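Team,

Forwarding the record for the chain on the shared tracking sheet. I've put the sequence and predicted structure together so nobody has to dig through attachments.
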Amino acid sequence: MYYPQQSPGIAHKLPGSHHDQSPWSRSHHPVLGPPGAQNSVGPPPTSPGYPLYNGNLSHALHHHHGPFSHPIPGHPAGHHHQNSLSHFPSPPNGHTQQHGLGSGSPGSAASQMITPHWQQQLLKCEMIRASRSPHHRARASAMASRTVTKSAIPITNPNLKAAAEVNGSKEGEGSEKGEGKAEASPHIDHPNPATGPVSETPRPHAVERPENTWNSLDMGGVFIKNIPPTSGLFSFTFLTNLYLNHNALQVIPPQIAKLRHLELLDLSGNQLHHVPPELGMLTQLKELYLFDNRIETLPAELGTLHQLQTLGIEGNPLDPSLKGIVQKDGTPALIAYLRDSCPAPPPPGDRSWTNLISPAERESMQNDPNVETFTVLCHNILAEKYATERMYAYTPSWALQWDYRKELILTELMNSHADFLCLQEVDIGNYEEFFVPHLAGAGYEGVYWPKSRYKTMTGTERRQVDGCATFYNASKYQLVEKQLVEFSHLAMQRPDFKKTDDMFNRVLGKDHVAVVGLFENKETGTRLIVTNVHIISDPQFRDVKLVQVALMLDEVEKIANNFAKYPPRLLSTNSPTDSSDDRSGSSSDNPPDRSTSAGKLGPSYTDGTKIPMIVCGDFNSIPGSGVYEFLSNGSVPSHHPDFMSHTYGRYTSDGLRHRLGLRSAYAAVGELPMTNYTAGFQGCLDYIWYSSANLAVNAVMGEVDKSYLEKVVGFPNAHFPSDHICIMGEFRVKPPPKDAPSRPAQPTFPQSNGAH
């Protein structure tokens, strides 16, 4: 809380008649008006950043003796204290002087540019200067919060009936009508990185302020000279407002970055020469006051403060080019300039593999020609149309450009040497023009479907519709069949889904899809089902997330049962060998001995649950959510809170069930701390699920270097092309049961053309 009038801590020291005697009283401030318009306190002392200029800019007044020249312990009598603050704007910058605009008093309109942005800057500067007494904000807040006894008796309507309480809340509060407004909000096609795709209920890993009974701390005006890096101040991570103004601080420790929930930080009236780059990690900041210091430049790392509304720089000998940006276009323009001029941070270390088997087991597998392994990579690559400065205001504009990001994505895919590349948010244009030709050169073929809306669009709009793309190693696997799973279409076909408002407003309006590929290993005949999906991100539609996943698994189960009825693959003596994955123990120099006699059949399957299966994608659901519980446990009760009291046929009457026996690839070592990393959310949203009855995990890709993340606000950035990171796992096929029935020999399936 700010009070523009003179602080009560020094009012008694001011003579009452100095206004009439001082020649300064005739100089009107361009923003605050004549001295009579506010409580002027007389001749201004010099700003600590540089001397005060006279009207002709010919010399500087280094010392001023006036009403503020009271003795200070440790200072010579009559010497002006360096923390005394000027009530006038700083002298004009060099650009203004060159154009002859420097004449006039320091407060004249001709001495500097006056724009609405700069007017607000000067007004806030004056209010900060008026709050230099000890604990000014705390005392003002305490005074404002005092209860005042009211003598008047409030008049109420005696005939007004009290609202009846329903489930602990009054009728009308949180009713269906009120809730409907929130739930009927427009579908967010892509998560907002400022808030994160999580529900309002408490979730682990979400960026939430710790609970505390107070959130503001006023340490202003108490002549603090030093804050040690080990100070307990940096343990107050719940703080939203911190006042360190009008002290004698020369350095702010980098540990200030621990206070991630700060929204206002006042460092005005100190002796700071530099601003710590770590302040750029405080992305919740909306007000940062650096008035009246000795700062000459600003670190480019402040460019990540995308929510900053006011950066107080007045009263500093700041670089004229930086100051000019604020004067002309305001704080957001300066932040954007710093963001785009910030050099890239040092790259992180390579992500290492986490092995789930011992070195002896791996060596044994490499020597066993009957062991079959494959690798799967899953990555939401961030569609080109979603990578905007509005969505990712903390990311340099050049790092958001598709021409820059696509090369990082392609390099990552090529270096993975994965057998299956499951990508989400791939738009039609980039799939056809970029991914297909480049990955074809590496031996991949693709299966792709965009979201259903592409059917109603033409031209450029159609090419920007994103979807799911699955690329596979064509030298090792043959595509037998591909299936599209349209959630809205499946929901319409279910007889138990009544055509209610929930169906039309919540489920049918979402055009998300899943892509299912049915594959056979060309050498062994082993079948594999790979499902690639992208689930709705809006946290207000947790029920729809559950419905979409349930519809997908129901359909995948049907597809798997039909696939099990296909005759086994007829193997030949010239079956190709796998040379694409050196992690499987084979290489182009020493391929494993998997030759078979003519006419030998591949494995057969009694039902769909016997076929190895991968279900991966961006589920937009964290561990502990209903979606995660359903996938891992195989069931969810009908009264699960994520259904949000909506009705969806048997799903909400009997609960959800599947019998695919899925398990997360990372379950044995713990889910990654995050697969989605933005300024407003860090958490795990992407998963690779596998059928545990016939597959096992050998290794998974590890997490991103923690020391790197401590210095990075969010993705995408110079090193990570998407707000999601890729996840990857190596799997081995368990031997089929020996009592599986054999089938008569059948001709092999024709070669697939691959791409959609």
